[in-house]
Amino acid sequence: MARKFLWIIAALIILVMGALFALRIWGQELAAIAFVPSEDFVEQSPLEQNAYEDPALWYSRPGIGVSDPARWQPAMRGEEASPPQPSPTPADTSLPSHAVFFVHPTSFLDRNSWNAPLDDAEAERVARLYVRGMASPFNAADEIWAPRYRQATMGAFMTDKPEGQQAIDAAYADVAQAYAYFRESIDADTPIVLVGHSQGSLHLLRLLREEIAGSADTKRIVAAYVVGWPISVEHDLPSLPLPACERADQAGCIMSWSSYAEPADPAPVLETYASSIGFDGKARGSSAILCTNPLTGVVGDDAKAERNLGTLVPDDDLSSGELVPNAVPARCDERGILLIGDPPEMGSYVLPGNNYHVYDIPLFWANTKADVAQRLGAWSTQ
């Protein structure tokens, strides 16, 4: 499932980059040539046991200060954006104290290595942009922790070679180690918000199953925002330690969505999803995908654009942006795809089929921030 799903995303990214005609004919072969490493897999030595004590292994954590990308605060269109706040000062002191653990999506496309070196300048630059745009809706938290990790390269998800899974496993090992340090560093009674996107969501799902299930942490989780990764309601959700978020005032639950403008063509993703194996060991087939409407916080819901408190519309280089209210609606269709109406102008990274994968969280930036606050309130009174 992991390899095949991100293979689709990778192939779509290549289509956006150019050579559209050729790739429509030879897409799979050219995608493999472009992204799958030709080098032998190099076993990743485990990080030192205390590696994540080093602030340099975090994009975001308490003490980083104004260089912390997650602390950036965009402004509504026509207003001036606020600079990042010195950590650990929360943006909203009226909320209960809480901590966020954020796992960024794939930013390493190099085919010269199965896993990203921690000193790869381009992967680091892009990852920081992702943290800025995707973790900033959660910056009302007292603490935001976003680890650097030796992510699997995009090509690792595009091959049946064992090296692909080895790379994914190595990336997850870093994430699990970072999470262990995170939970040891925060107060024992601090509520936790989990956030991931794409490859980051894949690792969060494994973290939920292997580290959090059956532990005391389950009761501490306000919500898990597992975005940009399909979760089967029938074959995956029962194996996770948290239920889906059925209501906006529910805590201790999972939210997930994948965004498409209309007319939407999710066929490549749905075909791969159908043939993949769920957490219960059975084929996912045509089972419904979990779709939480981020405008309402309700599963399978429909909301007009007037409910959108602010879409983060980025600059061309994704380094900044502004919030635009009422920009896009959202409705979950019967397949579990989140439809956002006519294609909004979000930049150059919209994928074929009107797939807004890169913008899953920025499309609903302000509503996501409000959703966290409401679930924190529910958690504190349960």
Structure characterization notes:
The chain is α/β, with parallel strands linked by helices. It has one domain. It has helices at 2-17, 20-35, 121-135, 162-185, 199-212, 267-275, 365-381, and strands at residues 58-60, 75-76, 99-103, 143-147, 192-197, 221-227, 253-255, 259-260, 292-293, 298-299, 302-303, 311-314, 321-324, 330-332, 338-339. The strands form four sheets. It has a six-stranded mixed sheet, with helices on both faces. The longest helix has 24 residues, at 162-185.
Quick tags:
382 residues, alpha/beta, six-stranded mixed beta sheet
- The count of domains is 1
Helix content estimate: 25-40%
The helix-and-strand class reads: alpha/beta
Strand content: 5-15%
Number of helices: 7
Q: Shape from CA axes?
A: globular
What average pLDDT do the residues reach? Answer: 88
> How many angstroms separate the termini?
36 Å
Order of helical and strand elements? HHEEEHEHEHEEEHEEEEEEEH
Total beta-strand segments: 15
